[in-house]
Structures are given as structure tokens and as C-alpha cells.
Amino acid sequence: MAWTDERVELLKKLWGEGLSASQIAGRLGSVTRNAVIGKVHRLGLSGRATTSRMKSHRPRPRLAANNKRIANNKQRFTPATTGNPALRALYQVEQEVYSPPAEEMVIPKAERKTIQTLTECSCRWPIGDPQSAEFHFCGKNKVPGLPYCDFHARRAFQPPQTRRREREVVEPMVGGAIENLSRKETV
DNA sequence: CCCTGATTCGC
DNA sequence: GCGAATCAGG
């Protein structure tokens, strides 16, 4: 809601009477106390005579706060990598450039597993933004010995997309189960 | 923890 | 200009 003349007048009046920003926000409605405080400052009303025992002025947060927010946004909005970096380190023999995933598999809502509903045999392939309520795991049956279902195991452990000839170089990874996987065609 | 106002800065 | 997020304090 906009700051109409009436609302501004009421704000001035109440502020002059010594009501707190949140109290004023409550009376005005449709605004937060932050909005009230911001408006008060823009109107140049800050520093009331009453209740003027404010302590020393804070230095200046400025950069720290901003950087923090930027970091948060980055974490929140940059596409999460698929696959588990920690596992990658475990299973890979040689460092490989992490290739961007194809499409995310769509798991029917009913089949989705949250961290709470994961069972021993559930594929732990993460799907979606961990920050989101929609975040879930694949939940299909795991390949024995692996944390993923067949499909996602191939996805997770596939060799670099950069084709290495036609040779069938089978690099032992971890555990016998993986050898079977890597021998098959990559996804 | 509740509250207070003050400040910064993306929108 | 607006106000959420954040800060600093009571």
C-alpha cells in the first residue's frame, strides 16, 4: 500500500506521540515496522524528543552485511550441482571435469523421499534445490552397494564426456559393483 | 528471546 | 522512494 497523504499524516502524528514503529505499523496496517522506520527517516522525523535515550550510534555494517547477502543469494540461486562432490572424490580415479547434467528425472510426488522418509534401499540422488520445500530424493531402489539407483549410479559415476576412443578402458573404481556399471555404455 | 530504532542497498 | 535484511542495543 502506498504512502498516501493521510497515512503519512497519521504516521507523523503517531510518531510525534511517541508510539514505536511497530505500534504505528500495526495501526496503519499493510506495512511493517521496517517500512515505518524507513518512511520516518525519509521524512526526516528520526530522533524523537521522547524516548531519546538511544545509545551510541553503530559504526557501519555496510560491506559485511552486503557480502553476506550476496553469498546467500549465490548459494540459493546458483544451480546445485548434481551428484555428490564428496562421493565423486571417492569414486573417481582421476580428476575429471564435471560435466553438466542432462535433465533432472521427474519423480512422481508419491514416490518422492525426503530425508525423513528415505529407507535403507532408497536411491539418495538429490533432486531440486535443498533450500526448497520441493527438495527430495529419487527414492527408487538402490543398486546393491551403491547409494543410487541404476540410472543415477550411471549418472554419478560416468567417466568424462570427452570420449576416449572406442577403447573399453575399465578403470577399477570402488567395489565390484561399479565395475559392472562402468563397463556398460555410458548414459 | 522479546523488543527498540538505524542503516544499507537492491529493487 | 520503498522496505527487507541486517545491525546494534535495551
What does this structure look like?
The protein is mostly helical and 187 residues long. Among the domains are: 5-43; 108-159, no CATH class. It is 37% helix and 2% strand. It is built from 7 helices and 2 strands; from the N terminus they run H-H-H-H-H-E-E-H-H. A two-stranded antiparallel ribbon has the order 1-2. The protein is rod-shaped and about 70 Å long. 13% of the residues are buried. The model is unreliable at 50-54, 75-81, 89-100 and 160-187 (pLDDT under 50). The structure holds a DNA duplex (11 and 10 nucleotides). InterPro entries: GcrA. It comes from Hyphomicrobium sulfonivorans. This is GcrA cell cycle regulator.
Keywords:
DNA-binding; mainly alpha; disordered C terminus; two-stranded antiparallel ribbon; 187 residues; 7 helices
How much helix, percentage-wise, in residues?
Answer: 25-40%
Q: Quick check: average pLDDT?
A: 70
The side-by-side strand order for the widest beta sheet comes to: 1-2
Number of helices: 7
Write the layout of secondary structure elements.
Layout: H1 5-16, H2 21-28, H3 33-43, H4 63-77, H5 85-91, E1 126-127, E2 136-137, H6 150-157, H7 175-183
Antiparallel strand pairs: 1-2
Helix pairs in contact: 2-3
The protein binds a DNA duplex (11 and 10 nucleotides) through residues 2-3, 20-22, 31-42, 46-48, 51, 53-66, 68-69.
Pfam families: GcrA (PF07750)
InterPro entries: GcrA
Protein name: GcrA cell cycle regulator
Summed up:
This is GcrA cell cycle regulator. The protein is mostly helical and 187 residues long. The protein has seven helices and two strands.
